[in-house]
Input
Amino acid sequence: MDYRAVVRVRWAWMSYLAGCIGVLSFHPTGLAQIVPDRTLPIPSSVRVGDQIVNINGGTRTGDNLFHSFEQFSVPTGFEAHFNNEGTVANIVARVTGQMPSHLDGLLAANGTANLFLLNPNGILFGENAHLEIGGSFFATTAERLLFQDGAIFETNANAAPPILSVSVPLGLQWSGNPSGSIEVRGRAFAFTTPSDSPLRLPDVREGLQVSAGQTLALLGGSIELDRASLDAPNGQIEIAGIVSGRIDFPLEVGSAFTYNIEQFGDLAFDRAVVTAAGDRGGSIGLRGRQIDIANGTIVAVQNLGTLSSGSIDLYASRGISLFGVTPNGQIRTTVGSQALGSGRGGDIFIETPRLLLQDGGTVAAKSFGLGRGGDIFIETETSVAIRGFSSTNPDFPSIIGAVAYDAGDAGNVTVRSRHLDVTDGALLASSTFSTGNGGILNAIGLEQINVVGANSEMFLPSAIIIGSLGEGNAESLHIETGRLSVRGGGQVSASTLALGSAGQLHIHASESIEVVGQFQDVIVSTIDSSARILDPVLQDFLGVPPRPSGQTGNVSIETPNLSVRDGASVSVNNVGVGDGGSLQIRAGEVELVGGNLTASTRLGEGGSVRLELSDRLTMRDSSRIAATASASGNGGNVSIDAPLIVAFNNSDIIANAVSGSGGNVNIATTGVFGARFRPESTADSDITASSEFGFSGIVNITALHLELPSGLLGISINLTDPARQIAPACVADENTFIVTGRGGLPEDPTQPLRSPAIWEDRRLGEIPNPRSRIEPSPIPNTVPTLPSPERFVEANAWRRNALGQVELVVESQRTLPTPSCYVTFSSLRQHPSD
Output
């Protein structure tokens, strides 16, 4: 089934098409299709020449000229001229019959008069329809035209004779009765400019175009644009599907229409071009129930001058979808604004319960000149879904973004929704490719934000990202949500590939953050700020240097629960020549299962990792917390403040370097379980600050609020049956617990026991009489058999009791870790030897 069969609105007047099947190929014998009625004091008159229909007469009141017709259609190749006086400001033409208007020729008026065409049965513009009107053009299916003095001009011929007003037309009204729709058909797509280049609009446009600075309005029950072209240079385009309600016109061109709508109709655009361009830009407004923009449709404002541009406003009471590219794969569906001069680009406002971008659909604000790009504001009640990439051209991901291509700064992007999904290679982005700076990106998902998967053709991740690919700096990325999930190769990133800085990344999740897994073992799920090196092919394609010199930004995260698993990472990395950034995490609990928290650099000074936790840090399966330098740079700093740290299975906390000096590790905790300080990394769980060729760093482990009497492990002192907690003997291959007095303490508080250094009383006692006969003690004939000791299982977990003390417990279903336990509770400052 083709697209038109899926998304085309089912017009209320389709039953008329059987009788009008040939209307778009009119023959000159169809001259009677402009038929005046006799409802006005001075009726209209029609005079036919050589395929030219002159419309004279009508009733003039003040600056307004009123016409009334039983039928009004312009066949192919014909011209319909309203022969008005030059002082007329508004021409109002209504259709009182039952037939829709079919316009496939020229519609013209004298002077600068505005033309209002009212036909509640519907209006169809054919491929050859075009306008020669000095003023604005309003095509509408409304039943009433309202005036400022309260007068009403109705399309119902049976209504009382109209009171013709001398005042300015104020608005339109629909009563909710079944009404027709408006359709605009075009011959072919209007231009072939690639999507990532400035729009190059032809000087002569087919389709509907008004004079510079004027308004082009299509206001009907439902509206379809099929390969149509609409243009209002420096003016305003207003398209709205309305079933019942009222619209009020602005008194000045370019000002917003006022909508008081009870029920909207649908809008469907297929391979259409809707533009408002010029030396001060224009504005575009789309309103409906469901708005579908598809197959390479362009809806754009373009500012070529020095003044600020108008905006693009989209509102849908049900939903908005953007998807598809043109058949040649060169132009993707876009709602966008462009700044090509020194003036500011237009803003984009989208409001709807649901917004869907897929198959290359794009919302973009771009600056190609000195002017700042426009801002993007998107607000939905339910969801924003940005999905995938074009199946025709995988180079086109679905995207919402602001971009700077020259000296002008990019605009800001704000997306606010209950749920925000960026999946399968789609992007939510702000970036700069030149000397202009990037904009601020705000992603607000009141309940959930998901960043999942990658482009399976191009192997590019789904991402919420700010970035610099030129000299300009990326700005900042702010994420506010209940739950953030980054999975399957998804990325949340502030990055630089060139000279500019990467920008700042701030995340607040009121419930949880998870960063999990990879995409086909190639793309790692990550939250990061980084300076990256691209593949040489991509470097040439994007025009970026082989090694970035921009600075990595900082990452700050605040959440009750952070989980990083299965190869995923949270990091600040610089593989260029700049310094590392700062990673700061404030959380309740942090869980790393094969996950990494890193701050790394190559040539510059190492970054830092700081964790401030109110609960615990758990590390398993080769997890790492690291602040490292891989070449001549010095290692960074790791700072952890947590009540408890548990590390198993070769999970390390390191601040290492290669040629430079090692960094510092500072830990404030009541206990470290499973990891210990070592001068260099091993296959066990280590805490190190070493350097391969330079000086080692410093490891500080400080115990806080020590309340445990043993000074070792937090074992409860209120055991129910102490006698049953100790095995009576040591059986082979079983664990032991030995009390040896003072000798049971380490000789060095930083080292485990190395020998049974037990105190023994070696004083001489009473010397026996050597002449005394010493009788040997009898040796029993049999060795007494000890009863089999009760089997005890090694503790593998911990918990807090009611007194706030730490107890070791056994969880029956957990795999026991390899015994590796080193715990210090006294203040300790270790200075590794050089």
Remarks:
- The longest strand covers residues 236-248.
